[in-house]
Amino acid sequence: KLPLVVVADPHPTVSAVVSDRKNGVYLLPICTSYEMDGSRTASNRSLQWGEQIVKPIFESKTDYEVLYQF
C-alpha cells in the first residue's frame, strides 16, 4: 500500500520488480564497489578502503552522489 518505493541498488531486486505495481517504483542505479573508491563498511562494522577498478557504466552514481543530489 505504499504510494512510492525507491530502491537504490546496482542490480534489480525483488523489491524493485514487484509484478503488481505499475507506478511509483523507482530503481536508482548505484555503483558497485568496483566502480567507486573510498571506504566501505561491512555488516559486521569492519572498514575497508578500496580503489576504483572500472569507471561507472550508464548513469550509475555512488551512494554519496545520490544522497547529495537528494
Describe this entry's structure for a reader:
With 70 residues, the chain is mainly beta. Helices cover 10% and strands 26% of the residues. It has one helix and four strands, in the order E-E-E-E-H. The strands form two sheets. It has a two-stranded parallel sheet. A hairpin with a 5-residue loop joins strand 3 (38-41) and strand 4 (47-50). The protein is elongated. It starts with a strand and ends with a helix. The mean pLDDT is 82.
Summarize the structure.
The chain is mostly beta strands.
Work out the helix count.
1
Mean pLDDT over all positions: 82
How much is the radius of gyration in Å?
Answer: 14 Å
Largest sheet: 2 strands, parallel
Helix and strand arrangement:
Layout (H helix, E strand, L loop, with lengths): L4 E5 L15 E5 L8 E4 L5 E4 L12 H7 L1
Write out key terms for the chains shown.
70 residues; mainly beta; two-stranded parallel sheet; two-stranded antiparallel ribbon; 1 helix; 26% strand
